[in-house]
Amino acid sequence: MKHLLSTDGLDPAQATAVLDTADTLKRTLLGREVRKLPTLRGRTVVTMFYENSTRTRVSFEVAGKWMSADVINVSAGGSSVGKGESLRDTALTLSAAGADLVIVRHPASGAAHRLAGWLEGTGTGVVNAGDGMHEHPTQALLDAATLRERLGTIAGKRIAIVGDVLHSRVARSNVHLLTALGAEVVLVAPPTLLPTGVDSWPVSVSHDLDAELPALDAVMMLRVQAERMHGGFFPSAREYSIAYGLSERRFTLLPEHAVVLHPGPMLRGMEIAAAVADSPRAAITEQVRNGVHVRMAVLYHLLAGEEEAA
Amino acid sequence: MAPRVRGATDPAERELLSAGDVARTIARMAHQIIEKTSLGSEGHRPVVLLGIPSRGAPLARRLAELIAEFSDAAVPVGALDITLYRDDLRRRPNRPLESTTLPEGGIDDCLVVLVDDVLFSGRTIRAALDALRDAGRPAAVQLAVLVDRGHRELPIRADYVGKNVPTSRAEEVHVCLTELDGRDGVYLRREADQ
Fold it and tell me: Are strands B185-190 and B171-176 parallel, antiparallel or unpaired?
């Protein structure tokens, strides 16, 4: 594994290996005074964020630092991107400056794939940290890690992804990964917020959240991405919230063991009620915690092995 | 992990220790650990056995059981995975991590006995010492190995050795343990085709 660009086509065995590594790392570091491993000493990781992010950038940085890699953060604002440099030139510059791995977030779908193509032959790997409305593979891996931890396994579990599926790279990555790991995925969204071609996905689709809740093992709420919406996708925020928000009433329809996930950032009162987000059955802060270990595992799998391992 | 098949009937292979020899050797090592660490006597320092996966871990458990049998002293056992501390990570394909489990009370101010199956270059033990430093601050560290095959590349020696085996670098020492391989035994194999 040299790049991690999408969960589409990711080998389930490889995904499971990453999850196992993440789990071992978590247990290894638990309660330790020195949370630092020498594994990636001398490796340079550059994060390149062309879009805002708190948790993804921070957790990649923490993950890199806990593995002793040198982590450098480049943001679009403070770099030559502001002077009009293209993505390609920025990437080649970073690679020439010694980056072993570039972690990129970009508003354009497919940006990470393009980047990996341009960096072919340079020895620099690419991790997709979210590209437009396409994929966000490490988020899906950390969601899977959290589900595995809470539910024991993913195979055979029924998981709903609720809300703005159309604009959500998290939803896409999760659909690929969770179904590859054997879960049954149901998308619950208004018809306007479902992508075209959803019928070819290995999922079922529903527009009635109340009807789905009692049979679920987990429910993943998505943020309504107002910044990507340039038109009327639903009549009003209040109406959306009433139809597709996880309210306290809806929460009671879920089985006792069911887990509530949210990739963050949350809009409390919109897609999820504050009381639900703070309930012990919500795993939202756990997702962030697991995010660090999952990203450590990804760095380990991409950077620790043999240089020429294909 | 599926148990690897080791020590099959191979003409290029010689038995160094039989199942009985392995049992006697481990028992002797248990006695030596009791003696050298004054286990069971008044005011001895707390002793912790840490096995290095994969085969050091079951060895450490066996030693602890025998020590408890011979001296009535309960010795905590753990496992210390050193994969993340190896110095050859970039030269080898990626390897899965094994689990690290430290005993309840930790290892601070204890006498830690590292347990491994074969002592060869010493690099594993160096990595284990690095890993140990991140896990706590033991009062002292000792090393117990079932087989010492020589060819050290670092100034490291074992405090307890089951068997010293002079080997050539072209040979491989395989330790089989019931817990992982279905039977006990130590074999010397000439690397012919590999």
Answer: antiparallel
Q: Which of A4, A16, A21, A24 best tests the B interface by mutation, with the highest count of B CBs <10 A?
A: A24
A56 vs A47: CA distance, rounded Å: 10
Find out whether A223 is annotated in a ligand binding site: yes
Q: Is A191 annotated as a binding residue?
A: no
Assess contact for A126 and A60: CB atoms under 8 A.
no
pLDDT string in tens for chain B (194-residue length):
444 555 455 667 899 999 999 999 999 999 999 999 988 787 788 999 999 999 999 999 999 999 999 998 899 999 999 999 998 888 887 788 998 899 988 899 999 999 999 999 999 999 999 999 888 899 999 999 999 999 999 999 999 999 999 999 999 999 999 999 999 999 999 876 54
Q: Which CATH architecture has domain B23-87+98-168?
A: 3-Layer(aba) Sandwich (3.40)
Q: Could you tell me how many CB contacts below 8 A there are between chain A and chain B? A: 51
- Inter-chain contact A21–B96, Cβ cutoff 8 Å? yes
Q: Pairing relation of β-strands B185-190 and B13-17?
A: antiparallel
Contact A20 B97 (CB under 8 A): yes
**What's the complex ipTM?**
0.78
The CATH number corresponding to A12-134+288-303 among 3.40.50.150, 3.10.690.10, 3.40.50.1370, 3.40.640.10 equals 3.40.50.1370
Q: Average of pLDDT values for A60-82?
A: 88
- Chain A residues near residue B78 by CB distance under 8 angstroms: none
On whether A134 is known to bind a ligand per the annotation, the reply is no
3-state helix, strand, coil split of chain A in percent (to 5) is 40, 15, 40
